[in-house]
Amino acid sequence: MLLDGKNTVVYGGGGAIGGAVARVFAREGARVFIAGRTLSKLDAVARDITAAGGKVETAQLDVLDHVAVNEHADTIAATAGGIDVALNAVSVTHDQGTPLADLSLEEFMRPVDGFLRTLFITSKAVARHMGGDRPGVILTLSEPGARLAVGGILGHGVSAAGKEAFARILAAELAPANIRVVTIRPHAIADAPAAGSYTKDVFKPVAQAAGQSIQEFLEHGLAQGTLLKRLPTLSEIAETAAFLASDRAGAMTATIANLSGGALVD
Fold first, then answer.
1. Which CDD domains does UniProt cross-reference here (predicted)?
2. In which domain, by residue range, is 247 found?
């Protein structure tokens, strides 16, 4: 198993991506700690993991509360003996499709402040308990908006670019401590709406303007802009995360795993 004996933390573990990754981490032998704001969603993921024979613990946690996040990480390290892998899969609802002239400062800053603040808080909390004789891995998530030159995604694009820069610089800082930092950059996710993702809320105005349903917009709009003519699935993202978190990817850091289906070509 890829992650046998590893202690893993998934922030936003009740969400579509976080839950999918947590399930795969557990299947691959990891002890999984999932944290997030909505206990019912965390419990649903935990039931799946337990039913499959995995090890999981849940914690209701506001990742914007740096004191609570630090205490949670300290507790995990004390009980489990350290933290080997952490993924920040926290979602921040934000605007897409509004041009500069109509975009408020609040809406522009919502993803910039929200995503980067949670990334800073969670990374700082877990890094103290990683590395040394046990290699540590911090996984982050980004989006194609970090590099796309299209209108209407100012806040989204800036926040995504910020997350990628954050991960790259953090990787350089933490490398001497034997901690890797790798970013996963999927596109919009084909099956995310059905899994309860907030994707439908983000793209609803754009889809409506095009006279399409959310699924039609994903399948016939965004998907057609990729080389593969399809969007990534939650399973593909989760399986990639498990590989990147494992020792098999031990030479990978300060880089981006491009799961955009060829929407972006690195």
1. SDR_c
2. 7-190+233-259
